[in-house]
Write the structure tokens for this entry.
Amino acid sequence: MREQGPNNKIGEFLKRKRETLNESLAEVSGAVEIDIDTLQRIEIGVEMPSEDILMLLMSHLRVSEPEARKILQLANYNASESEQPFDEQMARQIFMLMPWSAQVLYADDLEITMGDHGLVLNFVQPGANGQPMPVSRIGISYELAVKLQRQLKISTQPIKPKLIAPPKNKD
């Protein structure tokens, strides 16, 4: 039996998180922009992700801060930095980083799932074999969903022309 090294522990952890979220290898690899084969090698412990990719994976898989601390410590990218005290504010900033793209993605359909804290909007297009293929995934709070609903209602109402009262006669 193979020894359980840091690559294996990190890979198994990431795989469990992915499976808990019911996401496929394709969905996760697409979200962090790596090959499916690369993600598979990471999950089975053959390959250690770069620090940037690990951060993106943990962010996408919604890894809690305590779990992320353990994983980052286990990864041990820079031993001299890991001996320094953990900077909570820096960790929060890192978890807020997401790749930015000005590209506009269009979707033909929308799948909505509800959770404890809000909605997850899965924008999809028909893929190969007619299976839905995710284009983008966005989470929003219930408060934002209500605001969006109000805005959609306003924008779909027909515009009523304002009537101007005729001038009054000065007789």
User: Anything to note?
Assistant: The radius of gyration is 24 Å. Residues 118 and 143 are 8 Å apart (CA to CA).
